[in-house]
Design brief:
Length: 788
């Protein structure tokens, strides 16, 4: 890709913004080297890895790059056999730790989505935890070695501490005994040796070695002779400590050297990952998407936004080219957004071809171009004595020399800066020459001749930037298929130019040109109205679909409630009948007891008849209830073990496990339960009624099974009201499906959506408790709900 296009389209500004999201200077260097890849395969590969990193950021939060530094100098020194400084060793250990933790970060469970590109990259990471542990045990700070680094160092430091304590005690005694000769009653240290401040006039009173004097000369810092041996011992211990530290650093450096290949390889992978996640974080900041890439020269950017314009004011533009036409001529007033449109097309292509997400809507596509040429902006050069026209033409000559069918060419104000007639003729000729080579072209112009050229030439299409004459302001919206109108007369009239001057101007223009301009105005008005109507129709269609789905769900819910209510009523009726039967039996039992106490056998016979009559009535009512649940089903005449039948009371298909006993009861398998039921309560699965019932049950079971598969719901991009509605519906389905724990993905953002969801979960009847996601679950971007 030519450097001029990258500079003109300001790709360097995108790279500077991306650097803010890196953790190491090594990743910044990779960003500096970033430019469009040379094959479509590479482009797709790098877009996928950026998209995967974006997904991981959303699901698992930031990657484990804490404490990561650029350690290229330390690795280079270690590979040459040099001794590393403590901070270099510590940073290498941190790099190894980040690489090892990243393998855990990217690891997934069986039901989680694959991240093939990143997983493939991480396969090369080799964990060297033993080296990590040795370094972290020995070094506790960038300039501090731990006492635990070796037993020798520990003993030296312990002895040194004891000696220092002895010296301090002894020097304090000397201060007390010689206080009258001292400037101050305290000791100090000069050259790692303990000394006392003696007045210059009393230097003979305190025998010892003079190490220093004050700036005024009034004080001498003397090491008393009684401290010399102790100070010598301390100095020897300090030299031993230094030697031991050097030995430890040499040992650890040798360990790094032994694992030089793995350390170097891990560092390259972790810096590459830092670079990839910087791309993903930048993509997240611009609400980027991964476009599809083709090699046919066709692109369709839907609602594309220039990434360097404030997202609050940028106007999205839908731009497409390459299928119905290969050249686009954009016209319209100055400051209307023509140049921004060209830069948006060029910059979004360069970003996508460099493996970056682009700020556009999903389903957008870009084309793989081997070269993108851009002639945009004022190229006037004082040093080369070139006018604007000459400079543009010099650039255009280079473009014509190199452009081919695999090139995208962007011209801003083609042919401007010279005589309009000659400039327009040149512009048409340049466009026609490149079109015949099958180059893909987007050009802006003010010349009416180019509008006519686009109308007359196959494969060339007009476009314009919309201008609101009422407000005298551009709307920055791009209208493809409609040539732009200059609006000079309307603007001048609204600004107060006299009517007679405007009419005189119109008389100087041919009637054909005026009719052409009026035709353009009519086309613009019709296009704008059609687009507004289309947007309104799409909005209404969306509302109707939403209402339809809502009512279908409500109807299904009502039907389910009705069926459940009927089943529950029948169960309750059977329960009441059983209770009544038990009560009747108890009454008869009590009567028998009374009979023993004096009632006659005739009274007993009458009671038995009454009991039998009551039992027959109860069983008749119970049979009626059972039959009503499946009145079209056939009773079972012959029973075989393993036979499938319907149990209407449970509205479920069951399997017979035993033959009938003396009570005419059989044991059946209903799901995971085994229950005893009366044979007369079972029905054959035979005929239309039974098959429909089985199908209805299977359909309900299948629907429940499908709904039970999802263990998470994604709310990103929804407002609070819609998210709460979707979550409430999802929790109902999860509860029915028997899920114990579900994940609600709301993203981090400002926290408004998370607070709304947590407030709803606090009151939800199905939720036992909830918590924010932990590391590996999505962090603050996910709430985990435990269901009752």
């Amino acid at each position: 890709m030519n450097e001029k296009a990258l500079k003109v389209l300001e790709f360097n500004k995108i790279k500077e913004i991306m650097k803010k999201y890196t953790a190491t200077s090594a990743a910044k260097d990779l960003i500096d080297e970033l430019k469009p890849y040379s094959s479509a395969y590479e482009v797709i590969h790098h877009l996928k890895e950026t998209e995967e990193a974006f997904q991981l950021l959303v699901k698992k939060g930031n990657p484990p790059f804490e404490g990561l530094y650029d350690v290229r100098d330390g690795i280079e020194r270690a590979t040459k056999g040099g001794v590393l400084m403590p901070y270099q060793l510590l940073r290498i250990a941190n790099m190894l730790k980040s690489a090892r933790r990243f393998k855990d970060y990217i690891g997934r469970k069986e039901d989680e989505e694959k991240h093939e590109e990143l997983e493939s990259l991480c396969d090369g990471i080799v964990a060297i935890k033993a080296l990590e542990d040795e370094i972290f045990l020995a070094i506790i700070g960038e300039e501090e070695i731990s006492d635990k680094a070796s037993s020798t160092l520990y003993n030296i430091r312990r002895t040194l501490k004891e000696k220092n304590s002895s010296v301090r005690d002894k020097v304090n005694d000397m201060i007390r005994s010689n206080s009258k000769y001292l400037q101050d009653n305290l000791y100090t240290i000069r050259g790692d040796r303990y000394v006392i401040p003696v007045k210059a006039e009393h230097k003979g009173a305190v025998p010892g070695l003079v190490h220093d004097q004050s700036s005024s000369g009034a004080t001498l810092f003397i090491e008393p002779m009684g401290l010399v041996n102790l100070n010598n011992e301390i100095r020897e211990l300090m030299l031993k400590e230094k030697a031991e530290i050097e030995r430890i650093l040499a040992y650890l450096s040798e360990k790094v050297y032994e694992h030089a290949f793995e350390v170097k390889n891990n560092s390259k992978i972790i810096w590459e990952l830092d670079f990839i996640f910087a791309k993903a974080k930048y993509g997240s900041s611009i609400n980027g998407i991964m476009p599809s890439v083709n090699e046919k020269g066709i692109f369709n950017i839907i609602d594309g936004r220039h990434p360097l314009i404030d997202p609050k004011i940028v106007v999205p533009a839908t731009i497409y080219l390459g299928e119905e036409f290969t050249s686009l001529v954009v016209t319209g007033p100055n400051t209307g957004g023509k140049t921004v449109t060209l830069k948006t097309v060029g910059l979004l292509h360069i970003m996508a071809l460099s493996g970056l997400l682009i700020p556009a809507r999903s389903q957008s596509s870009v084309a793989f171009y081997e070269e993108i040429f851009a002639d945009i902006g004022d190229e006037q050069s004082i040093e080369q004595s070139l006018s604007t026209f000459s400079s543009h033409m010099t650039n255009i000559v280079k473009i014509i020399d190199k452009a081919d069918e695999n090139s995208l060419v962007l011209f801003d104000e083609l042919g401007a800066g010279t005589d309009p007639t000659e400039g327009a003729a040149l512009a048409v000729s340049i466009l026609e020459s490149l079109r015949k080579r099958n180059c893909k072209i987007a050009a802006t112009t003010h010349y009416s001749e180019l509008k006519a050229y686009a109308l007359e030439t196959s494969g060339v299409e007009n476009a314009s930037v919309e201008f609101d004459v009422e407000t005298l302001r551009p709307t920055y919206r791009l209208l493809i298929g409609i040539p732009g109108k200059s609006n000079a007369f309307e603007i001048s009239k609204r600004l107060g130019l006299p009517e007679y001057i405007i009419e005189g101007s119109k008389n100087l223009i041919s009637k054909e040109n005026l009719r052409f301009e009026d035709l353009i105005e009519q086309l613009q008005e019709k296009s704008i109205k059609a687009e507004k109507d289309a947007r309104a129709a799409a909005r209404l269609k969306g509302n109707i679909e939403e209402m339809k789905n809502d009512y279908e769900e409500k109807l299904q819910g009502i039907q389910n409630i009705r069926e459940n209510a009927i089943v529950e009523a029948k169960r309750e009726a059977r329960s009441l009948l059983r209770d009544a039967k038990d009560e009747a039996d108890q009454i008869l039992k009590d009567m028998r007891d009374l009979e023993k106490m004096g009632y006659s056998s005739q009274a007993r016979t009458m009671l038995e008849e009454q009991r039998k009559s009551l039992k027959d009535k109860l069983e008749k009512h119970e049979e009626k209830i059972s039959l009503s649940s499946n009145d079209k089903g056939k009773e079972i005449n012959e029973v075989t073990v393993g036979m499938e039948v319907m149990l209407p009371s449970l509205n479920q298909k069951v399997t017979i496990l035993t033959l009938p006993d003396n009570k005419k009861e059989v044991q059946v398998q209903a799901g995971i339960m085994k229950v005893n039921v009366k044979l007369k309560d079972l029905r054959m699965i035979d005929g239309n009624s039974s098959s429909k019932q089985v199908k209805r049950t299977q359909k309900r079971e299948m629907k429940l099974k499908v709904k039970s598969v999802a263990t998470s719901v994604d709310l990103r991009g929804m407002d609070s009201e819609e998210a709460c509605y979707v979550t409430d519906k999802y929790l109902d389905e999860a509860y029915v499906a028997g899920l114990g724990e579900v994940s609600i993905i709301h993203g981090k953002g400002t926290g408004i959506l998370r607070n709304a969801i947590n407030d709803m979960l606090r009151r939800h009847p199905h939720v036992k408790n909830y918590r924010l996601g932990e590391y590996g679950e999505g962090g603050n971007g996910v709430t985990v709900a435990i269901l009752k």
